[in-house]
Design brief:
By secondary structure, the chain is mainly α. Helix content is 65%, strand content 0%.
Length: 89
């Protein structure tokens, strides 16, 4: 994890022995290298956060019709593209 601007933070995480063995076995069977456990956890957390954010967005927009939502998304994209490429709307 030597990405530019990457400033690692150490976590202390407790899991069951069964989870530990299962994950380490999985990683070992796929040729795990140093840092793979941390990468696995970071990716799992990222995926879970994305799922939670998507669920919140779905809940927030549950009463909005698909057509209205699609029109709002298209409008937001047009605004971003116009700003990024300096084109008039």
């Amino acid at each position: 994890m030597s990405e530019p601007g990457f400033d690692p933070v150490k976590w202390t995480v407790s899991v069951s022995r069964e989870t530990d063995v299962a994950l380490r076995t999985h990683l070992a069977s796929h040729g795990a290298k140093k840092g793979d456990l941390s990468r696995f956890v970071a990716e799992a957390v990222s995926w879970r956060l994305m799922e939670l954010n998507l669920a919140a967005a779905h809940d927030h927009n549950r009463d909005v019709s698909g057509d209205v939502l699609e029109a709002e998304i298209e409008q937001a994209l047009a605004e971003v593209r116009a700003e990024r490429f300096k084109r008039p709307l």
